[in-house]
Design a protein that fits this description.
- This protein is of the alpha+beta class.
- Helix content is 39%, strand content 15%.
- The protein contains nine helices and five strands.
- It has a five-stranded antiparallel β-sheet with strand order 4-3-2-1-5, with no helix packed on it.
- Helix 1 packs parallel to helix 3 and helix 5 packs across helix 9.
- The longest helix is centred in the first third of the chain and has 17 residues.
Amino acid sequence: MSLGEQQAAIRRLPGAGPALAAVEIGKLLAGIADGTVARELHLDILEAAEALEPKPLPIVEALAAYGEKPGGPFAATLHGGDPGRGKAVFENHVAAQCVRCHAATPESKVPLAGPNRSGIGKRADRAYLLRALTDPGAEIAEGYQLATLQLQNGETVAGMVLEENPDRLLIAQLDGSARAVPKSQVTDRSAQDASAMPPMSGILTKQEIRDLIAFLAGLE
């Protein structure tokens, strides 16, 4: 049985009836705890356990224990994703809109509000990728901090500095639009230790995050 087939079979367990499902899911959770179940199956097991109603106390306790692992509730997304589905999330997810700010190929010359992710699989491990997706403000790539401009008319403009020359700044604003600001209008300029990227944990499902990590980890 392929990995995908195993994952699908586990996700179907809650529909097998409460008693049988509780026994089988309990065994799988015990396998997670003692290290005998492949890490690629952890998310599917945990989500099957979450879907089980009613939940026996041992399952409730096992879910709570896993949530305390490094990476918290998203620790299970590190392995088992599908790179093809992750590529589709990166390129096409309407809410995440990864390609609005990031490129995934070294050939891209388009100025973007986020770093080019080409080769990220060589430069970073999966734990870094998870942090970058769920807590983007924790480690901001050099040159991609937010800048805040105060203008002569009292207006505030915030975003990434995409381009700068002696006369103007091109700002990628937080709504995704680009705005050219003449430097003659800027009365104050400050950098913020923050990221313009929203946490993907509030936008993508855990399955989608797992797939996206698999895609990014393969960008070598």
